[in-house]
Design brief:
The complex is a heterodimer of chains A (83) and B (132).
Chain A: E1 49-54, E2 57-62, E3 71-74
Antiparallel strand pairs in A: 1-2
Chain B: H1 6-20, E1 29-30, H2 36-40, E2 44-45, E3 50-51, E4 53-58, E5 64-70, H3 78-93, H4 121-124
Antiparallel strand pairs in B: 2-3, 4-5
The chains are: A mainly beta (83), B alpha+beta (132).
Chain lengths: 83, 132
């Protein structure tokens, strides 16, 4: 019997269990993992476009559409995660 | 912005957040499936599959002026974010001629960096001003 997931602020996740599944052999070269980089202050914020919910409508938001205004961009672990 | 879909954002807004804030969330709730944007901003937690509590202040030129990243269980302080924006706005309006010392809030004195101020900050700024 699996343990109940705790109702913490991080979204509970699962994954494969038991015997390891043989990885399929791939002939394509594996993409090199890009090195993780943190944003730098004083440098341009990377532009992006993202689907959004805003006042009853589904919209699309592009960061660069907000040039000329101050923007606060907030990330959070997930909807309904308490904090 | 979180990895949730805009549909879940709608449910969270309609079922819970609109009961905390009249009229619901006033700003767009962005969806970042797979954490693609969060990865570029360096705050996506690949192991957990969620974004951490990253907060970025971006100025009118699209330049990042400040950020803060917290692990999930601790919430942010919105007043501190607003204070920082006010400070960045003041510095921007002064075209960099003024700086806001530690503990600055609107109405408190600023510093005007220059040759006359070198070694003289102790005369105009006291340590208790950092937290009053």
């Amino acid at each position: 019997m699996a343990d109940k997931p705790s109702a913490g602020c991080a979204r509970p996740t699962g994954g494969p269990v038991g015997e390891k599944v043989e990885e399929m052999e791939s002939f394509a070269p594996k993409p090199e993992k890009e090195e993780r980089k943190m944003i730098q202050v004083g440098k341009k914020a990377p532009d992006f476009v993202a689907p959004a919910y805003h006042k009853g409508e589904f919209t699309s938001e592009k960061l660069s559409d907000h040039l000329g205004k101050w923007v606060v961009l907030c990330f959070y672990p997930g909807d309904f995660t308490f904090v | 912005m979180s990895v949730d879909s805009m549909f879940v954002h709608k449910m969270w807004n309609d079922k819970e957040l609109s009961k905390m804030v009249e009229g619901g969330v006033p700003f767009p709730m962005l969806s970042d499936a797979g954490g693609k944007v969060g990865s570029v901003y360096g705050i996506y937690d690949e192991d957990a599959g969620v974004e951490t509590r990253g907060r970025f202040i971006i100025d009118p030129d699209g330049v990042v002026q400040g950020f803060e990243v917290l692990t999930p269980p601790v919430g942010r302080n919105v007043a501190e974010t607003l204070r920082q924006i006010q400070a960045f706005q003041l510095v921007r309006e002064s075209k960099g001629s003024e700086a806001t010392p530690s503990g600055w809030k609107p109405g408190k004195m600023t510093l005007k960096p220059g040759p006359d101020l070198v070694g003289k900050v102790w005369e105009v700024w006291k340590t208790d001003m950092a937290s009053d």
